[in-house]
Specification:
The chain has 528 residues and is α+β, with helices and mostly antiparallel strands. The protein has helices at residues 55-64, 112-125, 161-164, 186-192, 238-246, 259-265, 296-307, 312-319, 341-346, 352-361, 382-396, 409-416, 440-443, 456-467, 471-489; strands spanning 29-30, 33-34, 36-40, 69-70, 79-80, 83-90, 93-98, 138-145, 148-153, 199-205, 209-214, 229-234, 252-254, 271-286, 324-326, 368-374, 400-406, 423-428, 492-505. Helix content is 27%, strand content 22%. Strands 3, 10, 11, 12, 13, 14, 15, 16, 17, 18 and 19 form an 11-stranded mixed beta sheet that branches. It has a 4-stranded antiparallel beta sheet with strand order 6-7-9-8, with helices on one face. Strands 1-2 form a two-stranded antiparallel sheet.
Length: 528
Amino acid sequence: MRAKSVAAIGFAALTVLAVAGCGAGRTGEGGGGAGLVIGTTDKIFTLDPAAAYENGSLAVETQVYSFLLNFAPGKTTPEPDAAEKCEFSTPTVYTCKLKPNLKFANGNPLTANSVKFSFDRMVGINDPNGPAVLLTNLAKTDVVDELTVNFTLKVANDQTFPSVLPTQAGPIVDEKVFPADRVLGDDEVWKAQPFSGPYTITSYDKNKLVEYEANPDYNGLFGAPKTKTVSAKYYESPENLKLDVQNGAIDVAYRSLSPTDIASLRNDPKVTVHDGPGGELRYMVFNLNTMPGDTPAQKLAVRKAVASSIDRDALSQNVYEGTFTPAYSSVPQGVEGATEPFKDIYGAKPNRDAAAKFLSDAGVTTPVQINLQYNPDHYGDTSSEEYAAIKTQLEATGLFRVNLQSTEWVSYQKERVQDAYPVFQLGWFPDFPDADNYLTPFFAPNNFLQNHFDVPAITAQLTAEATESDPAKRKAILAQVQRDMAADHISIIPLLSGKNIAVAGTGVQGVASTLDPSFKFRYGVLSK
């Protein structure tokens, strides 16, 4: 999962693999006016797309690489970027025709051969930290002619494949620069200028300062950048990020200020806090083998009782200052096809009597001992407060006794897939803004949660929704999957959905337009 917990997504009918301050002055002026400085705490893992599957690297890829299809600001349907058009030529062949005369910033031509090389390389390297898992349904990539490429899919009518092309699995790289069988180092990448996106990199001090300049040869979806030069400044702490955007040392702060800092900045007249739909999900996972309960029926009753005892509104307001909103499905509101079955079935407020009845009817002795694990560093310091609040909520019912423990991220990632945690925290940033990306990774066989959930009826529904071309019928199937998971299975409990938030000086324009569920923060739409 991209900077979320682990990277994993696959087609429902297939196997889903498990696999997320330095000084800076103004950068000068150009055709777009004074340069912009953008601050972030996200870290770049690599400039090589084959191994990049987290938000820090995505921010760079969004600026410097072109994609066959991309998401226009505020849109959730992919549109042509480097491609002139893309369409299914047969149920298992997706054909893309490139725009003519495309080239990389170093002068090398960008052709169908570049596209085939990029996808073959991504699949061939299959880096454990990379996004190749998104291409599970890709059987092969073929060049038809200089401008045309065919993607042959393993399963027909895959409605999600067009949305995979704008993801981190889809950057087009220069076959004359990148080796086919290994990941290229950052200095080798940027100095070779294999870029075809809106910007090129002119200076690179990894996770300290990256400087960009508009690419005059870019001929894609976003058009010419509104600001010619942009600098990205990297911070170790959100506290310094907040101070610099307040005092005007940077123009925009994007990821990740604390909820308290954001609440404070809303009252500062020198800056504007911009909120957008983000699609980030926070949720609780049950290991179906090791969670409390002697039988499957008892385990399900425990999960239903927990679902009836959580106060999401309190978490949203008291812990996250409204920067997260209550989530009643694994598919957040704002994503096409989202419903709210947990609200419909278990209520918007805690219901102790309902929780007690679930447990009593299944013969579960109370209080139920729950060993609940969370991570204190990967999702921010507020995780400690969030899970302390959840412990208090559950124990206030008198039905549960919670043993709350935390583990640092590196160990957490290893231990959670080794059945060490009966109940545990995870978060999710979507790969693409489609409901399937909140369902298949969680509920298909061998899903990335590794929590032993495998229900053939759900797998069949996932296959059906992913291959249904009629929008109304697909929406109905998506709703049924969400309801069946909430009513009959509950392998996870959705808790909160995060907004996409950036803070900018009052003179900065265009910020709100790029805060959308694609999580692509496009520097080229910003100006001042």
